[in-house]
């Protein structure tokens, strides 16, 4: 059973960098999935941040692209999110998730429990 | 404001059938699959429908999805109290180097 677990600081200073890690158990980044970050601001909807493939290829939300970096750990058992120049608007619950793509997008089938980050 | 539009709220009584719509454009819903998620307060979203109309293992057949052109819909039949929560559609968008777009979400209330 695949499980994802987010970790990282819960409080980040304005203008600082938000850094989170997602630990993967029961799977690895070598499988044909995209590993994503999604956030949800208080009382609002879901916002996709970006994702990474095992090749290192990435996709980012156009509205966040200038501030976001997603990277792989060499162990292939975790991936990370860096979001720079944060403001209060970046306060949210941050989820990591696995997106299954088999020719077509089959959705986020595994999610972490989410971690609340306040700026 | 999301590029994929959902009604902000929906409601129904137990046993009723409710339909939630998801309207996009040719760069997302019109040319890619639509997936649906259900989220209860304080919990992570759960995949409910993938590839427009497929149910993951464990999802009751009361839930069904469909897509036509640039619109998709989620139907819930035999509404139950545990169906309350927020529902989101999502799709890949081919524009701007490609990205995932979520609908704004629909809050379902079982009266």
Topology summary:
The complex is a heterodimer of chains A (119) and B (111).
Chain A: E1 3-7, E2 18-25, E3 33-40, E4 46-52, E5 58-60, E6 68-72, E7 78-83, E8 92-102, E9 104-111, E10 115-117
Antiparallel strand pairs in A: 1-2, 2-7, 3-4, 3-8, 4-5, 6-7, 8-9, 8-10
Chain B: E1 9-12, E2 18-23, E3 34-39, E4 46-49, E5 63-68, E6 71-76, E7 85-93, E8 99-102, E9 106-110
Parallel strand pairs in B: 1-9
Antiparallel strand pairs in B: 2-6, 3-4, 3-7, 5-6, 7-8, 7-9
Describe the structure in your own words.
The complex is a heterodimer of chains A (119) and B (111). Chain A is mostly beta strands. Chain A is built from no helices and 10 strands. Chain A has strands at residues 3-7, 18-25, 33-40, 46-52, 58-60, 68-72, 78-83, 92-102, 104-111, 115-117. In chain A, strands 3, 4, 5, 8, 9 and 10 form a 6-stranded antiparallel sheet that branches. A 4-stranded antiparallel sheet of chain A has the order 1-2-7-6, with no helix packed on it. The model of chain A has no long low-confidence stretch (mean pLDDT 94). Chain B is an all-beta fold and 111 residues long. Helices cover 0% and strands 45% of the residues of chain B. In chain B, the strands form 2 sheets. In chain B, strands 1, 3, 4, 7, 8 and 9 form a 6-stranded mixed sheet that branches. Chain B has a 3-stranded antiparallel sheet with strand order 2-6-5, with no helix packed on it. The interface between A and B is medium-sized, with 25 and 30 residues.
């Amino acid at each position: 059973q695949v499980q994802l677990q987010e970790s990282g600081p819960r409080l980040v200073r304005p203008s600082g960098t938000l850094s989170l890690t997602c630990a993967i158990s029961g799977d690895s980044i070598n499988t044909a999935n995209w590993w994503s970050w999604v956030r949800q601001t208080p009382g609002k909807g879901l916002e996709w941040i970006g994702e990474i493939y095992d090749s290192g290829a990435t996709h980012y939300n156009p509205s966040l692209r200038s501030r976001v970096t997603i990277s792989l750990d060499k162990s292939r058992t975790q991936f990370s999110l860096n979001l720079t120049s944060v403001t209060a608007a970046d306060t949210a619950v941050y989820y990591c998730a696995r997106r299954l793509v088999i020719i077509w997008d089959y959705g986020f089938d595994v999610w972490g429990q989410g971690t609340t980050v306040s700026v | 404001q999301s590029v994929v539009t959902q009604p902000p709220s929906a409601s129904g009584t137990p046993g009723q059938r409710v339909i939630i719509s998801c309207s996009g454009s040719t760069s997302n819903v019109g040319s890619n699959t639509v997936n649906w998620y259900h989220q209860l307060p304080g919990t992570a979203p759960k995949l409910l429908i993938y590839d427009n109309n497929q149910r993951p293992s464990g999802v009751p057949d009361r839930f069904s999805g469909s897509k036509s052109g640039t619109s998709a819909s989620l139907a819930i039949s035999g509404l139950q109290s545990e169906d309350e929560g927020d529902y989101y559609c999502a799709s890949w968008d081919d524009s701007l180097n490609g990205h995932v777009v979520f609908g704004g979400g629909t809050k379902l209330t079982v009266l």
